[in-house]
Protein: DUF3360 family protein
Amino acid sequence: MSDVKYTQEEIENKSYSELHRPASEFKSRSDYLDNELQIMKPRRFGLNLPGRDFRFEIEDFVPAIAGTIGIIAMYSAVMMSWAEGLTQAWDHVNLGKEFAIEVARVEMLIPALLFCVLASGFFNPRANLAGNHGPMIPLIGAIALAGAHPLALAILLGIFGLLLSYFKGGSKLVNLTSEGTAGGLLIFLGFTGTMSQIGYIQEWAMGLQTAEMAAGSMGYIGLIVLAVAIVIYALLAKLGLRWLAIPVCAFTGLIIAMLFGAGFDLRFETEMGIPNLNPMYWWGSTEQGWQLGLPTMEHFIASLPFAILAVAMWSPDFLGHRIFQELNYPKNTEKVLMDVDDTMTMCSVRQIVGTAVGGGNITSSWGTYMIPAAIAKRPIPAGAILLGTLCIIVAILGFPMDVAVWPPVMRVALLVGVFLPLLEAGMQMVRDTKDSQAAGICIFGAIVVNPVIAWALTMLLDNNGLIGDKERASKLSFIDKIVIPGGVLIVCLLAMLAVGMLESAYGLPALL
Structure:
């Protein structure tokens, strides 16, 4: 085996297919994957073909499987939140689990084909897949009670996102966020996410009850599932196989829970088939589908602050995913890093299209795909095609959705595939005292208020040299130091005040 090396001139002047060499010519699998990332030249908004522009590798199945498990869990959570919130807010609306599953399957069919397989797979592999906006899930009940309409919210969110991407606002905010600020954000998100998944698993285990055993007496199953998952995760990290964490740990969680008698809790209720894909079924009448009818001007007004908030929260989300690529990819791989503005464009269009055909997802950059893909040292396109295909198959079969949302599978997958890696990545970014100052303020702000306000405030302080690297602040313009960070902070704060996000914690009532 030889150590294949290319000069920068060769990489610039030759195509991917000319530079590609089989894995057998490299000293290690890692070297082969590094080389693939360095020689790829994705065509932006052009046709990218397997063999000519990229290849499928065994590693691509890992983010595809991880993303499928994650998105089933997220979509199901979103649709159940909409069903509960709208049933409570609208007198004539009665939506339940069956409705939520059908809408989730709609979201997994049309958007998976258009925006995973075609968009990110073939036409712009620098745009990360449009997935789910996790931080907005707890707000969906409040959105419904505020009088918002899912379709009105989607249209506004898409318009605001397209405007921000057109003016390159997403990439600008990413460039103005220091490593310390980004590290603090990732540490907070990783830690809180880890604690929440542990809590969910233990809550599930304590709720198990059989005819012979009372609820709570089977709580030890959650502890065993978590302990085995962490041991396997540590072993995979030591062996350099951490990219296998989601499928291996999720499958192990499934087997352990079954072996210890928790299998009675697993219900196969989703039947095989294709959901109703006629938009008029979902939005054309108040007696079917969402039972809401088409949105009115009042619905758009009620949805406005939530749409602003969702788009404002995109940038830190996108930032975390791109940084994860940068930390795991080798040098000279800028051409395959996700483009923040293109991803924002894709999310905006997907938001409008996905909801128009009957969906209800609030979209963002797909973290349960990107983080495992970055760990596996794989670019976007091949995994995107596989993930889109898996989503379509699962949506039609039905029963795999029941397995994927079972707590010992879903929670373990999110724990080892998203939140622990986020925590590790954040700690890697905090390298010196200057970084630790910004990271500490960001974490503190996130605990006191929330991660979005913390990110905006820390960016403002950091870019003005009040914390962190003062030399960096001296190189920034007045617009970069004051106007943009200050504007972002004000917009985020006003949006949160408008929708009452700070009411329960600080008694600040909603402005609308």
Observations:
- The chain has a mean pLDDT of 88.
- The first helix runs from residue 8 to 13.
- The chain is about 65% helix and 0% strand.
- The two ends are 67 Å apart (CA to CA).
